[in-house]
């Protein structure tokens, strides 16, 4: 679809939230929109939800590229996962056209990736592959990319291809453990305490997470640690468990900087943990990498 009357629109459509980016013909950002219309909050159907978004953005005709959970089996239309041998630079070739009844509008979705580890265990991602593509478009160099979140992703890249990736339920576990169960009863504050975070990070090196997590409670009830430190200690323990798994996989040495893609709030603790472990890292702003990825997906020549 071409023509001056056609607007380029990228949508990062997740489980809870939706972010839209209106681009000009050169890939420049014209307007950005964010709302709570994630896939779990779509009540009138995805076609109607997109139509309402276009109306809100005052767009008559659009070429739409969507990424994230909108392409899952719980989303608009399931897009089969790609195997990791499909190069990221050819992600645009694999986009799936979605049936939509909006006149003058083409809708496509990015499929995401699946990976089977050497033990036969599967892993999947939807949306993070677009952010990694965007960082690569902006010149990111390094073997490991980290995308912190509710489900943290570590993606290994070699010559523009994903060779493996791992997902950790770190954010979800922190939310569950700090708000429910026995640990939540001894947490008195969510304020960040760097020394407690570092102590949790060091404890994670010992392994045995379920034991060290209980020790967090034991330290509070025996007055070995203030209750105000428990949340930061738990955060360090969870993030450390994740990081030491990656360090183990990398052979105890990560020489190239880890490319961290996430908001400052999500990334700060990971960057702090990486610094404490002596692992180099570089932070990327997620909107910037997403815009760069859209440029590649719309095949905009700069």
Give an overview of the whole structure.
The protein folds into 2 domains: 1-114, 2-Layer Sandwich (Nucleotidyltransferase, domain 5); 127-289, 2-keto-3-deoxy-galactonokinase, C-terminal domain (Nucleotidyltransferase, domain 5, 2-Layer Sandwich), CATH 3.30.420.310. Helices cover 34% and strands 24% of the residues. The protein has helices spanning 46-56, 128-137, 170-179, 181-184, 194-204, 209-221, 230-249, 264-276, 286-297; strands spanning 6-13, 18-23, 29-35, 61-67, 82-83, 96-97, 105-109, 113-116, 122-125, 144-147, 152-158, 161-168, 258-261, 281-284. Strands 3-2-1-4-7-6 form a 6-stranded mixed β-sheet, with helices on one face. A 5-stranded mixed β-sheet has the order 12-11-10-13-14, with helices on both faces. A 3-stranded mixed β-sheet has the order 5-8-9, with no helix packed on it. A hairpin with a 5-residue loop joins strand 2 (18-23) and strand 3 (29-35). It is globular, with a radius of gyration of 21 Å.
Could you name the key traits of this structure?
302 residues; alpha/beta; Nucleotidyltransferase, domain 5; 14 strands; 2 domains; 34% helix; globular; six-stranded mixed sheet; five-stranded mixed sheet
Q: Distance between the terminal alpha carbons, to the nearest Å? A: 19 Å
Instruction: Give me the side-by-side strand order of the main sheet.
Output: 3-2-1-4-7-6
Instruction: Give the DSSP E fraction (strand runs of 2 or more residues).
Output: 15-25%
Assigned CATH class of the largest domain: Alpha Beta
The unreliable regions are none
